[in-house]
Amino acid sequence: MVRALSLLGLLLLWMVAARLTDDPQVLPGPFALLTPFAAEIRSGALPYHLLHTLVRVAWAFALAMSIGMALGLAMGLFPALDRWLDPWLVVFLNLPALVLIVLCYLWIGLNETAAIAAVTLNKIPNVTTIIREGARALDPGLRAMAQVFRMPRRTYLRHVILPQLAPYTTGAARSGIAVIWKIVLVVEFLGRSNGIGFQIHLYFQLFDVAHVLVYALSFIAVMLAVEWLFLQPWERRVRRWRLA
Questions:
Q1: Radius of gyration of the chain (CA)
Q2: CA nearest 140: which of 118, 166, 120, 160?
Q3: What is the DSSP string of 80-137?
């Protein structure tokens, strides 16, 4: 209920801003987007480009989370490794996303591999940093208990480490999905021939604000659905043991 009222407030603010601007070429009202939205759906352009962007987001998210979690866990558990890799982490954390995107396109080519690699490399340092902090905060008492009972490594990882890392993993996932799709749009804007970013680039060149908003808001709606239907329920589930 609160979320619905909050979105309604945002919609009303948009309507007021559009009315004050009084120029649909600058800021069309929300209802003015219904016609171009329906036209893009009927033509199949919106579902086609939305699917391509979602595939890139899914690949980059899966790769960034898996590699970042492995690196973060290793750096948090082994201080010697952390000392070696920390300078690399700082460099990649401060390397602009645009630079990595351009370099991947120059080195690999204007293809899907370069696009997904650029997005993945941009997100891995953030995931690594969050998971490393979680690994540093692991309860030493639980580790000692596992050693006393000679718990197998796989069992220790599954039942001791991963539950403690769950809040950090959730945080990395939520921030990751928000950042990754934005970088994917930049990647598509610069060097792909399909996707939401490509369409935004196209309509930017045509100065068509309505279609830019149609494509942007369509993908935002999908990401909000992912957030509310998957990420937030998962976060509540992994935090239950702390509230018990």
A1: 22
A2: 160
A3: HHHHHHHHHHHHHHHS-HHHHHHHHHHHH-SSHHHHHHHHHHHHHHHHHHHHHHHHHT
Q: Domain ranges for the chain, please list them.
A: 32-243
109 phi, psi to nearest 5 deg: 115, 170
Task: Calculate the alpha carbon distances from 87 to 136, 168, 176 in Å.
Answer: 18, 22, 22
Give me the amino acid identity at 141.
Answer: G
Q: Is residue 67 pLDDT above 90, yes or no?
A: yes
Q: How far is it, in rounded angstroms, from Cα 160 to Cα 164?
A: 7
CA distance 138 to 162: 10
pTM: 0.84
Asked if 160 and 142 touch (Cβ cutoff 8 Å), the reply is yes
**What is each CA distance from 223 to 57, 175, 190, in whole angstroms?**
10, 12, 22
- pLDDT 10s digits, 81-106: 999 999 999 998 888 888 999 999 99
Shortest CA distance to 123 belongs to which of 184, 79, 168? 184
Structure tokens at 91: 């460099």
Closest CA to 179 of 48, 94, 64, 72: 64
pLDDT(186) > 80:
yes
What tokens were used for 84? 């070696």
Place of tokens 């962007």: 53
In this structure, whether the domain defined by 32-243 belongs to CATH 1.10.3720.10 is answered with yes
